[in-house]
């Protein structure tokens, strides 16, 4: 499905929440591409804006255009390589907040549904038990509202649109989602209410475990949870266990 109209927010132009000589973290607004699209009019992106000041900047992971929140970028090639490996081998942890349609009855749970691209309806994804890739999301209810539920999400895998499809599959699409919500659920918000609030990773130079948090503009009570989240069995492995190429 082509992008009908692209009018990314311009204020602030860039919101840097952490920076050192190896990397920086930004709070990407909803409506801004992570990297340029194919068309010239879709060049404006988080990466292209940072490129104006940081000519060596490299993207190591992406957020959907409509998702807001933390993006980590590398300022040199060694940092880029180290960070990309961490995402590849799932040494990073991410916590999202989302407002979903309806009342989620379970206080917490796990969604394990395989996902695959819905090719006739790209960029949509879909659940497919025959050919889909394994996908796992942990969820936790943080607040039940009149028509919606605020949930905290921890993706164990990182498939495209994973959180959006998994919530829809539970019968609770994220409000404002142009691809996976309909009717009142879609009209409830003028944006996709999905925010990448927290990211943990090993610093590419010191190897120390770091965690960065940015507040959520549609849920002001959001808090940092990375070191005491709801799956105590899963632990971050030591950086030294990272597989070598």
TrEMBL record:
First-tier enzyme category under EC: isomerase
Entry EC no(s): 5.4.99.-
Family annotation (Pfam families): PseudoU_synth_2
Alphabetized GO MF terms: 23S rRNA pseudouridine(746) synthase activity; RNA binding; tRNA pseudouridine(32) synthase activity
Domain Pseudouridine synthase RsuA/RluA-like: 22-169
Described function: Responsible for synthesis of pseudouridine from uracil. Dual specificity enzyme that catalyzes the synthesis of pseudouridine from uracil-746 in 23S ribosomal RNA and from uracil-32 in the anticodon stem and loop of transfer RNAs.
Protein name: Pseudouridine synthase
Taxonomic placement: Bacteria, Pseudomonadati, Pseudomonadota, Gammaproteobacteria, Vibrionales
């Amino acid at each position: 499905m082509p992008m009908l109209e692209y009018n990314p927010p311009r204020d602030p132009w860039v919101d840097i929440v952490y920076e050192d000589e190896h990397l920086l973290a930004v709070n990407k607004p909803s409506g801004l591409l992570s990297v340029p699209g194919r068309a010239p009019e879709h060049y404006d992106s988080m990466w292209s804006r940072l490129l104006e000041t940081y000519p060596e900047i490299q993207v190591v992971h992406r957020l959907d255009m409509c998702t807001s929140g933390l993006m980590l970028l590398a300022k040199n090639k060694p940092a880029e390589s180290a960070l990309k490996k961490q995402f590849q081998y799932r040494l990073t942890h991410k916590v999202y907040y989302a407002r979903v349609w309806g009342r989620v009855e379970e206080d917490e749970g796990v969604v394990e549904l395989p996902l695959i691209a819905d090719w006739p309806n790209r960029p949509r994804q879909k659940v497919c038990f025959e050919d889909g890739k394994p996908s796992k999301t942990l969820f936790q209810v943080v607040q039940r509202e009149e028509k919606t539920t605020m949930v905290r999400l921890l993706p164990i895998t990182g498939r495209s649109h994973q959180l959006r499809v998994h919530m829809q599959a539970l019968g609770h699409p994220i409000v404002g989602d142009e691809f996976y919500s309909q009717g009142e659920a879609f009209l409830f918000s003028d944006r996709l209410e999905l925010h990448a609030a927290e990211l943990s990773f090993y610093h590419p130079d010191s190897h120390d475990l770091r965690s960065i948090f940015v507040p959520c503009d549609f849920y002001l009570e959001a808090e940092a949870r990375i070191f005491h989240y709801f799956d105590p069995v899963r632990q971050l492995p030591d950086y030294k266990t990272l597989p070598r190429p």
